[in-house]
Amino acid sequence: MAGILSKDTTLSFKSSGSTFTVLEYLMDVPEMGGDPEKVEVTTLKDSVKKYIPGIRDLGDLAFKFLYDNSGAASNYRVLKELQDENKAATFKLTYPDGSAHQFEAYVSVKMDAGAVNAALTFTANMSLQSDITVTHPTGE
């Protein structure tokens, strides 16, 4: 089994029709997926607690970007506009091997803390509005 480097991982958004546009300068991606909550189903006859899987709470997905607000297509401006429109958008996280996670989410953008001699970054928090659809690579 060969490992795979996270280099060339991209986050894109559906800009029109079926066209996805890559958001440049992605630095960090969150964990994708989640465990279902446990629902207790223990009865008075049971000698141990019993559980069944419940609903998965995937939480918010936090994507970190190098800040760019240089033009209308810059990452910060595009995501801030999606936030200001207050409507869910479709996103796709694609890994170097062609695997992808697609989901719909509302966006909330915030500037990260600054420091001396440090790059400006911002975080785009995604509040999921759909399940995450997984696409597997098309290789052999």
Give structural notes.
The protein is mostly beta strands and 140 residues long. The protein has a single domain, classed as Factor Xa Inhibitor, CATH 4.10.410. The chain is built from 1 helix and 10 strands, in the order ββββββαββββ. The strands form 2 sheets. Strands 1, 2, 3, 6, 7, 8, 9 and 10 form an 8-stranded antiparallel beta sheet that branches. β1 and β2 (19-23) form a beta hairpin. The longest helix is centred in the middle third of the chain and has 11 residues, at 75-85. 14% of the residues are buried.
Fold-level CATH name:
Factor Xa Inhibitor
Largest sheet: 8 strands, antiparallel
User: How confident overall, as mean pLDDT?
Assistant: 93
Tally of contiguous helical segments: 1
Overall shape: elongated
Helix content range: under 10%
| CA-atom Rg in angstroms | 19 Å
List the uncertain runs: none
Tell me how many strands there are.
10
Question: Which class in CATH terms?
Answer: Few Secondary Structures
Count of domain modules: 1
Q: Which structural class is indicated by helix and strand composition?
A: mainly beta
